[in-house]
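Quick note —
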Amino acid sequence: MATRELACLSVCTRCRPADFIGTDIERPGYRLAAALLQDSCIETMPVRLRGIHCMRQCKRPCVVALSAPKKFTLVFGDLSPDTDHPAVLALAEQYASSTDGLVPRPERPACLRASILGRIPPLDYEGELLVPKFNLP
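Predicted structure written out below.
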């Protein structure tokens, strides 16, 4: 593992199921962001928390993304605002400690193993996942 580096944990505060009729602060995404912010361990983590008005993953709420310079960005959905915030923080710690942002599925907290929506390579990525045929010089 690498030295822990500052990572960004983005949380969609507008996430909600299609049939949700409550207020903005009752939305599941807002509640997840609030739970993360209120967790005392976040103050000592190498993670910056930020709320995002909408991350456009409406069919898979609640959504979070982990990003950092020179690391893959990981996006997760289908989270529970009532039970998953400790797992999100545990994953954020793993992500911050990783060299490339890739946290292997078996090492992720259980609720985050099947809920990944995407992994986006950093702009300067030159690794084995690139398909040379589709890359312009």
